[in-house]
Amino acid sequence: MKRYTYHYQSIIRLSAPVERHYFKLRCLPCENTCQRLVREELQLHPVVSLHHDKDTFGNRIQYGHTLEAHDAFVFTSYGEVELAPYRLPEEEPHPMYREESRLAYASPEMRAFADRLALNRIASPRERIIRLSEAVYQQMAYRPGSTGNGTTAVEAFGQAAGVCQDFAHIFIALCRQQGFAARYANGFMPGIGFTHAWAEVYLDGAWIGADPTNNQLITEGYIKIAHGRDAADCPVNRGIFIGQEVSFVNAEASGIFLTDIKNGIVVDEGEEIGNIVSPLTGQVLHRIVAPVHGYLFTIRAYPVVYEGSLIARIHKL
Length: 317
Prior knowledge:
single chain; mainly beta; Immunoglobulin-like; C8orf32 fold; CATH 2.40.50.100; 3 domains; ten-stranded antiparallel sheet; six-stranded antiparallel sheet; globular
């Protein structure tokens, strides 16, 4: 295994001081059959508490809060890992990685684009994956600022421009349309000081890495942080805070949002405003309570939510 060092810093500057900042991060590398941690450090400013856990995909998460007023939030992740060739054996991928997801689904135009590639004439599944990556790379222009965190594969494909997240989403959507199980991954790649997004495709009993932004299958050198159906499942940073007297409440799980509360009322701190339940079992995945006493002026109407979806906004009284 080869040894690599990484150093990543994110500085989030706020337009006005905020307080009671609750955050969730995914900024430490995972461990798997081709990636071993040698050492790691995580520094945050400001911070009062920090805890470690895993999400439903098995990704490492770091979460905590700070109560003091601040106008910037800084986290720095650095360390050293040992990497083997990029291959993650798994008996059988979860069926969800073959289905369309919130940000990675194919439009009729994308399906027609894939049809024109005549992939059915390519016997080797590996070569079909390579051809898809090449086609996305040739179709798309890398244009920072042209898309946002919530941009879908369809939207990015429609403007033929985006960033690594968009390239990955389009590629994943097309892979799934061709019958492959595919998922989104993020982390660090050699030579850049910021996070990068790529895809993993299930082939011959293992997940292999594919980076359509750089038109290559991944051999080694990429340090993985997390994976999910698409970027909505594994953002590097997410949180809620109170600032300018408004508190934002976001979902901490994916599922169905149920509530009988309407906006335009006053809620007490700790009062339940809804639940996110599993669409399969009905189990409550996230009990949502008001973080402050205030005027509830926004409440989500659409029931399907993903981790990080906006649920409510409350004006503190």
